[in-house]
Amino acid sequence: MTTLLINHPETDETATDKSMFGGAPSAPAGHLDWPTCGQCGGNMQFQGQLQNALESSLLLVFMCQNDPGCCEEWDANDGGNKVLEVAAHDLQLVTPSEDGETVRSTRYGATLVSSAEANYDRARAQWSDAAGQSPRQVLGKIGGAPMWIQHDETPECDACGQPMQFFAQLEEGPDHRTAMNFASGCGYVFRCGCTQPASGKFLWQC
Ligand SMILES: [Zn+2]
Ligand SMILES: [Zn+2]
Questions:
Q1: 184 C-alpha to center of ligand 1: Å?
Q2: Which of 3, 35, 152, 172 has the fewest Cβ atoms within 10 Å of its own Cβ atom?
Q3: What distance in angstroms lies between residue 102's CA and the mean position of ligand 1's atoms?
Q4: pLDDT 10s digit of each residue in the chain, 206 long?
Q5: What is the total count of domains within the chain?
């Protein structure tokens, strides 16, 4: 089985409590300092947020896009991206920093669609055929196992040293003009619950 993330144009500009991509992130008031890049020191760009299965937290994914390709933003450990977990209560839209490339202008939501197909690529193709829509409408998948483009790069948790738990695989997005920039590859989100809030890591491959 594969749980696909399917593009769902968001009509509520103020929605905060869902899996969303682009625009501004959600966090409880005062709980998010806008993350900066460990390579260039600039403000990172918000990519999207993913709700956990219990709807009790959001994982916010950021990546430096101030000088794409120069901050090792594909690497889980080199400081060019960041995953932050926030509790999913009293959520507010966080005003993005105006300094740097901090926002993707197209904001879109995601609905979860179960496929009986375990292979992600086949599940994506089957959904596209059945729905009569572009595979670009598939935003990725939640849970299961990562479908690596290159070799297995499961990161280790900085707190406990164990391999992190795979959380989601992400495509660049439905609109190529404002898509995430994975050099036409896929992003991978990992989480470890050994700390509170959980730690997260992100990487991409192409
Ligand atoms: Zn940077
Ligand atoms: Zn850990």
A1: 20
A2: 152
A3: 11
A4: 999 999 998 777 788 888 999 999 999 998 899 999 999 999 999 999 999 888 899 999 999 999 999 999 999 999 999 999 999 999 999 999 999 999 998 899 999 999 999 999 999 999 999 999 999 999 999 999 999 999 999 999 999 999 999 999 999 999 888 899 999 999 999 999 999 999 999 999 99
A5: 1
- How far, in Å, from the CA of 187 to the mean position of ligand 1? 17
Q: What is the CATH number of the domain that holds 69?
A: 2.30.320
Place of tokens 């959380």: 167
What is the pTM (predicted TM-score) of this model? 0.96
Long-range contacts made by residues 117-123, C-beta under 8 angstroms, separation at least 24? 117/1, 117/2, 118/1, 118/2, 118/144, 119/2, 119/147, 120/2, 120/144, 120/147, 120/169, 121/147, 123/2, 123/4
CA 83 to chain centre: 8
Q: C-alpha distances in angstroms, 39 versus 11, 20, 110?
A: 36, 26, 31
Q: How far is the CA of 69 from the centre of ligand 1 (A)?
A: 9
Tell me which residue range forms the domain holding 27: 2-205
Q: How far is the CA of 57 from the centre of ligand 2 (A)?
A: 17
Q: Distance between CA atoms of 125 and 146, rounded to whole angstroms?
A: 17
**Tokens standing for residue 74:** 């594909």
